[in-house]
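Box 3.1 — From sequence to structure: Single-stranded DNA binding protein
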Amino acid sequence: MDIDQTAEELASDLGVDKQEVSDDLRKLVEYDVPMDEAVQSLRRKYGGGGGGGGSAPSTKEIGAVSTDDASVTVTGRVLTVGKRTIRYQGDDFTIFEGELADDTGRISYTAWNDFGLAVGDTIRAGNAGVREWEGNPELNLGDSTDVETLDEELDVPYEVGGDRSLADLSPGDRGRTLEVTVVEVEERTIDGRDGETDILSGVFADESARLPFTDWNPREEIVEGASLRVEDVYVREFRGVPSVNLSEFTVVGELDREVEERATARRLDVGEAVRGGGAFDVELVGSLLDVRDGSGLVQRCPECNRVIQNGQCRSHGEVEGVDDLRTKAILDDGTGTVTVVLDRELTERVYDGTLEDALDHARDAMDKEVVAETVADRIVGQEYRVRGSLSVDDYGANLDAEEFDRVQEAAEDRADALLAEVDG
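Predicted structure (token representation):
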């Protein structure tokens, strides 16, 4: 739907200035608000028409702001401020994002203008628009918003500032500051919005957790083993887990101390992990019930690395496949099941042979399934401890394993340990 045409029709219907409606509508759409929702939001804002505008915005406590509000005036403390650039219809826009709070609650905001917001400031935002974002109200501070910095310091029951540990991050966080060590990093070239773009991707760690990151403006400070302070990052969801993103406004500096990496992953029940919708670095323990079809010898597309069938790739058509090994095994701990995926290296370990050995084995038997059968004979019915990243989608739960070890403790030893824990 054409924005200008929609704005003209809406302005005529409401009896308000077309340019003002057009500006408001464009900003909502730029921030991924569906057109129908944006139109309804502006209808609420301008009061349904007549007389060049709607009623004055109501003054509310932050905890009382709802998605039914068109615009409000609130007083709150700035908890966080993040800055990044978004692109819409070929144009770049710099926005400021974060959270405001008072003693009744906190709310996310997006500022389309530079109001000079600073962490810790107490502000009054007059005529702030309200939109719905992932089911919650969010403030939009734009051309029609008046922002005043107050002398008083509002006392709020929330942490002021963006410093967080990795374990505290959630998708949607903005303006966060981390102190981390770089566990893994690689430079990649992707097909970005400006064509081929170089980025860094890898894994950050601190004392609480490990999480994946992407640096969209590769920085020389980000090298494996470095301990860094990383200011102003935002967090997206990738395969069900938080992913740290560094923008062009992120500030990276070396620390004068070493950040310790958490040595062990969080151990969860399978059911708990699956219900959580995904986790980056977890440890599951259970019995292997079966090895699924598609295990053992497989062939992959040389372009996208997907497993192919009969020389056909779903994305690239007929290709000459590249031989590989993998295992897909069902792990059960009594609370749920998950498919554990072992890569070539881990599959070679449980098979007790290399890829070349497996190819020879299949040729001698004239049946490639003997490789998967050998793997199944060695692991099915055994208890394993698996560490890796869990993703959950419409097709089920999969754990991409990084560590895969048979549980060695005898049953009585585990029982003794459990009793000791209960006795305190």
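Summary of the box: The two ends are 65 Å apart (CA to CA).
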